[in-house]
Specification:
The chain has 11 helices and 8 strands. The chain is α/β, with parallel strands linked by helices.
């Protein structure tokens, strides 16, 4: 049998097995907890894999050397079009208060007026630094409701995290709204996500921002593509990327490894994994998050 032998261009001994960035305690800005319900009833097994309670999320975060995960309750988001926003926020308030290592996004839907009043109450708590919006799961176009959502965020000094990349949540549609509200920090979730297969939507939105108030998180399967994160850093700078995993839907340690082994400097990795979040969320450098 003819055997082919691969010759490595460098010795494996020259490549550090554990990158220095692996020692950085990360902050995951895009997490969930709860039971995932897809719209496909045949996906019960896959749905069970994508589910996890608060303790499960924290355990997986520890495997990824992550000290804080900012979560929103799946109860408030899914099944699509049927999320229980108010009940989910109430549940999350209790779960996060009882679970070290979690902070809470207050879920707001313009189709659920009570969620605005509820979020205003939650935002007074130190465990709640901002609001989560999801035009796709709640089924509304951001072009119709973005003004009201950003007015609320501006009034309450809340960071906005949003799903992005699909037709109700095109990153380009957020740009004029974010430009009208320079005081609001917007995080576009899912680097590389695009309903049309275009990997550049989120990056182009950051580039079109007038005030530098648009950021991107890495919580997309497409961010695992070789060179996509590196390309994004080249285009907009590591200062505009935040570490996110979409846990428990995805494997947190996989996303962590993608950053640790990226072709980036240690400073750039630290910005993505932690320092940008510390700055934006004004997180105290507690014992939990010490280097």
């Amino acid at each position: 049998m003819n055997m082919h032998r691969y010759v490595y261009p460098v010795s494996c001994n020259e490549i550090p097995a554990i990158p220095p960035s692996a020692q950085v305690p990360a902050i995951d800005v895009h997490g969930h907890y709860g039971i995932w319900h897809s719209s496909d009833s045949t996906r019960a097994l896959a749905d069970s894999f994508a589910s996890g309670d608060g303790r499960t999320v924290v355990a997986r975060a520890c495997q990824a050397h992550t000290c804080v995960t900012i979560v929103s309750p799946l109860l408030a988001l899914v099944p699509r079009g049927h999320g229980q926003v108010v009940a989910g926020n109430d549940e999350a308030r209790q779960v996060v208060a009882q679970t070290e290592g979690l902070l809470q996004w207050a879920v707001v839907s313009p189709l659920e007026p009570r969620s605005f009043e509820q979020a205003a109450e939650l935002l007074r708590l130190p465990q709640c630094p901002g609001i989560k919006i999801h035009p796709e799961e709640h089924q509304y176009p951001i072009t119709e409701h973005g003004q009201a959502l950003f007015e609320f965020a501006a009034e309450h000094g809340a960071i906005v995290s949003t799903h992005s990349g699909e037709q109700n949540s095109l990153p380009a549609d957020y740009v004029p709204i974010a430009n009208d509200f320079p005081e609001v920090t917007l995080i576009l979730a899912h680097l590389g996500c695009g309903w049309d297969g275009d990997l550049t939507h989120q990056v182009r939105a950051v580039q079109a921002s007038k005030h530098g108030n648009i950021f991107i998180d890495t919580s997309s399967e497409r961010s695992l593509y070789p060179k996509l994160i590196e390309w994004a850093v080249k285009e907009v700078g590591a200062e505009h990327l935040l570490y996110g995993t979409d846990t428990p839907l995805h494997c947190a340690a996989m996303y962590r490894a993608r950053i640790d082994h990226a072709d980036l400097s240690l400073t750039e990795k630290q910005l993505i994994l932690r320092d940008n979040a510390v700055r934006l969320f004004q997180l105290e450098r507690t014992t939990l998050c010490q280097d």
